[in-house]
Design brief:
It contains 1 helix and 8 strands. It is mostly beta strands and about 150 residues long.
């Protein structure tokens, strides 16, 4: 929203995002067509994810599953991201890309997760350190509020 300040008045910050003790809030707007994917990653801060337009699928993994999610090496600029390929885990599962004992990412299929389908007006709290994968099921607009 810093890039388009004219929109700031149209985006109200949810009260829960004001509960952090850090005093700063980072707001990000995500806009994209159907099929847009945010690869598996975790955020180093709390996140309130608000769906404004369209529908999104989210898959969430607790931090305790990190060893099965193939995180990048510490020191990597994307160390909060997974190395799993393909990045669209729904397509990867459907094609069998992760499966079998010889699969490059075979432990991934053992990871426990929960799923959510967000529609316009929904808000989801993502705790700091929780891994998540996001896929747009339609043209979509979302706003994330990151806070400490």
């Amino acid at each position: 929203l810093d890039v388009i300040p004219e929109l700031q008045a149209d985006v109200l910050t949810p009260d829960i995002a004001l509960c952090g003790g850090g005093g700063s809030i980072l707001r990000q707007v995500f806009f994209g067509p159907r099929g847009t994917v945010t690869p598996l990653h975790f955020d180093p801060y709390e996140n309130v994810f608000c769906q404004v337009v369209g529908f999104k699928y989210l898959r969430l993994y607790p931090p305790s599953e990190a060893s099965r999610l193939y995180p990048r090496e510490r020191g990597d600029v994307l160390s909060n991201n997974s190395t799993i390929e393909p990045a669209d885990i729904l397509e990867g599962e459907a094609s069998g890309a992760y499966g079998g004992e010889t699969g490059k990412f075979c432990r991934f299929l053992e990871a426990d997760f929960v799923e959510a389908l967000l529609e316009p007006g929904d808000m989801l709290y993502l705790p700091k350190g929780w891994w998540h994968f996001v896929k747009s099921l339609s043209t979509s607009i979302s706003v994330a509020f990151h806070f400490d």
